[in-house]
Amino acid sequence: MQICDIKPVEGSTHRNKKVGRGPGSGHGKTSGRGHKGNKARGQVNPNFEGGQTPLHRRLPQLRGFKSVNRKSYAVVNVSDLNTFENGTEITAELLAECGLIRGAEEGLKILADGDMTKKLIVKAHKFSAKAAEKIAAAGGEAITL
Fold it and tell me: How far is the C-alpha of 124 from the C-alpha of 94, rounded, in Å?
């Protein structure tokens, strides 16, 4: 046996369909596309849903807008600051090292959830009014950067 003797198994291959070559071929005239209509003439729009209202028109439109000048703040609650020792100076860098924030995106904001028990010096870009009160009530200091 040589490489020139190798042939595919009988019945495993089919000849190509030759369309549009006259009535004797069995695929003449309309070339297997039937009569008239979009499918006979050209491509059908892939988004066409058979006359049903298309999906992109059934979905609601997005409303409002996103501000270009929006600032995103890393947020920490007052209760999270109780892990530090008394008198510690808390900054965004320190909180990032401890894993309380990923990083001060455009600033650090302290919120008032929980109780403050330690006397701390907190430096942040923003404080909620209650958070500043709680820090001062515990004997600490809230410094706005």
Answer: 11
Tokens 């049903």 -> residue? 52
Which pTM value belongs to this model? Answer: 0.54
- pLDDT per residue over 26-44, tens digit each? 899 999 899 998 888 888 8
CB atoms within 10 A of CB 94: 14
3-state SS, residue 142:
strand
Domain boundaries, the chain: 74-144
What DSSP string describes 32-83? Answer: TS-SSSHHHHSPPPTT--TTSPPHHHHSPPP-S---TT----EEEEGGGGGG
Strands across the sheet containing 141-144: 89-90, 121-124, 141-144
Q: What is the CATH number of domain 74-144?
A: 3.100.10.10
DSSP class of 137: H
- For residue 129, what is the DSSP state? H
